[in-house]
Amino acid sequence: MSTSASPPAKISYRPMLAKDIGRVPMDCHGDAEAVTARVRDLGAAAILAFDGAQHVGQLQFRRHDPALRSATGIWSPDYWGDFGDDQPELPGATLGVFCYHVGQLTDGDERDERYFGRGIGIALLDFLIDWAKGQGFRAMVAKSTPPHRAVMGFMGGQPAHVYEENGFELCKSWIDPQLQETVQERQLVPDATDVNAIARVGMCVKHFQS
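RESULT FIELD:
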């Protein structure tokens, strides 16, 4: 495992398999046929977190496609795999980290705050890194979110320093105008907050040793 906080004792983690489709929250996954195909291709579609039998979180992933572009920006799950132009060349067997859903008990946007701040997001990433290595992936890529907690919660992601602490390299970063506008419209942060804290995203890459 990577050098990060140990998972909370009560929370268990496992890959999302075909049998889980429709039995756990499916937000952002796409239709059942697409998820089934993803499981068949990758071996799983997400890492799931459970408190006993209760689903409390998941970290979704897909095969990395450098040509992927999000037609609606932050409002599509494709956003997590959209890194624009000028990307570093990555191996074909690269896994893309998509969105986090910590505190999610059922479908929908509601989150149970009792599961916040317990290291579940980092534990999901740790589990995914180990799982991906075991599946033969050669690299992993993730889009980092701004470090402001309210923006992290809105986006469902992790800031660059979390990825860097887990062996990723921040390859490039940029201000996302759509994210900046949305955060300000929704008043997620005070008006005077630095744009780097509310709208800077980045491309983080981790290579696995052969």
